[in-house]
UniProtKB/TrEMBL annotation:
The chain crosses the membrane at residues 163-185, 322-344. This is AMP-dependent synthetase/ligase domain-containing protein. PROSITE patterns: AMP_BINDING. It holds the Pfam family AMP-binding. Residues 554-623 form the AMP-binding enzyme C-terminal domain. Keywords: Membrane, Transmembrane, Transmembrane helix. Residues 108-472 form the AMP-dependent synthetase/ligase domain. It comes from Gossypium tomentosum.
Amino acid sequence: MNLYLQDSKLTNLGKIMEIHGPKLLGTSYKDPIASFNLFREYTIRHPEVYWSIILKELSVTFHEPPKCILDTTDKSRPGGTWLPGSVLNIAECCLLPSIHPRKEDDSCAIVWRDEGDDDDSDVNRITLKQLREQVILVANALDRTFTKGDAIAIDMPMTVNAVIIYLAIILAGCVVVSIADSFAAKEIATRLRVSKAKAIFTQDFIVRGGRKFPLYSRVVEASPHKVIVLPVSGRNVGVQLREQDISWKDFLAYDNQHQRPNHFTPAYLPVDSMINILFSSGTTGEPKAIPWTQLSPIRSTAEGWAHINVGVGDVYCWPTNLGWVMGPILLFSCFLTGATLALYHGSPLGRGFGKFVQDAGVTVLGTVPSLVKTWKNTDCIKGLDWTKIKSFASTGETSNVDDDLWLSSKSYYKPIIECCGGTELASSYIQASPFQPQAFGAFSTASMTTGLVILDEHGVPYPDDKACVGEVGLFPLYLGATDRLLNADHNDVYFKGMPTFKGMRLRRHGDILKRTVGGYIVVQGRADDTMNLGGIKTSSVEIERVCDRADESILETAAVSVAPPDGGPEILVIFVVLKKGFNQQPEKLKTIFSKAIQTNLNPLFKVSNVKIIPEFPRTASNKLLRRVLRDQIQHELSVRSRM
């Protein structure tokens, strides 16, 4: 037996394939590598069998068990009803010891370091018991102040305290509203309004790269009802608070004197109860409010367990934020598998982060391609030992092959597991798999239980073995995917207008996929006008609304994003039609647009190019054809790259 095959049988997924494969597939089952595709196809046809196995592998304990795994009798629910009748608190599942996976009270739950601390000092650690006690302390304070079901926002970096607050809100039966700490006040206000948040947790400041940036003042500008303010350092906040706001120290003061501060009875709720409101931009201008239920963490954790092989003994690090879907995915993927969560309180761009990865003994490191490019270009991790890393993961943008090769080389050419999914799916629908040969910057398979087809321009699926390009259509039976939106019609967004395949109405996701001759999948952009800037999804409409008002010379603008020919993050290009009688220079407009977008939308967005044209291409019904503009830029970039 070769070493690679032997190792495959010791992975999370390999173990259950060895146990259940012969029974489910009969004599067709050979081993985890030879039979991977066969086993995955079986999970599409029989998802209830797969999930009954996986639930026993994760740290999920039901207060009341499900009546069954999947109920498809209600035809008004194309995604089915998953785990009907079950009651639990998913935050409690994160915090309790378990036999399988093995989590004990003295297991290390979180390892972290603050930016600016002595890089030669020990990293900080908190055990599962200590984490549970801190979460209970906050849950008691929440229970005293709010009502079960209240929406409570978090707008702060993903620190240990942010994780404690997140789990405490869910433990207390409230709903987390996820807001990224990079958002401008208008974007914060929109999310508070849509979610009807009763309060928001934030910090007085953010420290990044040795610099201090105000956060509380930006949050206050969004006019929240109540703000609980944590200090970025020390015990006392460094800002003057509004009368209705309260410091973290005072918020917890009552419960420090409570007779039973380490006791709290979790709010046990049906599995389809909402625990988290996240946001994803569509093409309407207002971000879609996407509710996560208690099913969502089960799905996201199972993907990391099966495809990235996360489990007990791993130290899992991924620079992210609770305002983006990757934050909750990382949190649950650690606490429901028994892995240790690794957090760096600071910028991931410099050597300090790289030293933390080394000192914390990180075994799984998640990235976004632009982050890898920065590490490579600055050579900031030179001389550091990253060889404990057994696999990398990447999401958010199109990867660059050369950058991926460089990253893989930092740990004896370990694999990079590419992941592509969506907030509304709570997971990746296409991924890489350690059981298959990999190609940098590409996906080798759909995820477990995920069925999909690639559609031609008439909505007809291409054969599964045919190289092609088209919009993806997902099979609707998908545990963890949304069945509602808070501010849009779910059926209109995800199902209306989609073709039927084998009796199923396909679910819309919006990605354009290219399947190569070898069966690998490459994401080629969005079917709608949503764009992905630095791993953050936004819409053309949002960008254009800001740019249209940015200068008196502007008649109208069109925003498109394109991926460079050699890979890497998408670049933002603004097309402009000027008012009659006005002259303007593209470079000047580029500066004006960048400033307006960073002030009103997101300080991380950057305009790469401005093109002034006489008029926009439109359909007969006057609909703007951004696709034509996008193709024009793509062609120009392609020609330039060949020169």
